[in-house]
Amino acid sequence: MKSYIIVVLITGLMLGGCSTKEFKLFEKNAKVEKSVTDEEYAQEATYEYKIIAGDRVQISVFNQSSGGSGQLNQLIARGGLGDTYLTRDGYEGMLVPKDGAIRLPLVGAVKVIGLTETKAAEKLIQSYKKYLRNPFVSVKILDQRLFVLGEVNKPGVVKVPHGTMTLFEALASTGDLTDDAKRTNILILRGDLRSPTIRQVNLTNISAIRLSSLILRPNDIIYVQPRDMKAYNVAFQEQKPFFEMIHTMMLPFVDVGVIHKSFN
User: What is the model's pTM?
Assistant: First the structure.
């Protein structure tokens, strides 16, 4: 009987151990970067987001009057541009199609994909100079965001209002780390989702932080892994019905043994 009980318990623990491996994301076959070079960090610090297909942009076109006042007269605003919509923040914007060309009055289709806000504005100014004497164009990308998953109090989508954001800002926006967060292994995924680059950040080690980069970009995915103990706790809760069933099955044998001993 003892051997049977031991076999059952070992089987249950083995099943629980298998489930802990699947509890964490991005564990298998992941090549993780733990540090960046000075050159890579300099590129991170000076990074400017470039427009991609699917972005929403707000474009305003002004023309400076020829009088002495130099007043700017707004000719085209974010409304009435055709393919507009209302975001959750109440802003309208134009969808950048897959071909990267937005269509505006007078100038027609202008390709802005792959350009920063500044470069896109400069390109549009050159286009409008054919029709306006002193044009001024403002370009703003509206829907820059990143994603925070795992052991934070409010996981979800985080807006990136200024083109970049630090890891600490993102964590603060999601209500900070939970007590179950593994602070030594925070992962940042970037790029093509089929083959992303993965960077590991250890927030408990100042030296490790200095060798890494905490600068985030739009569309980054931040995953805060749980501590190993939480995985085992979850595995135990999953296997709890199994152990309760074994306990129920063994009760009659235990009771019979106790009664037998009491009469001897």
Answer: 0.71
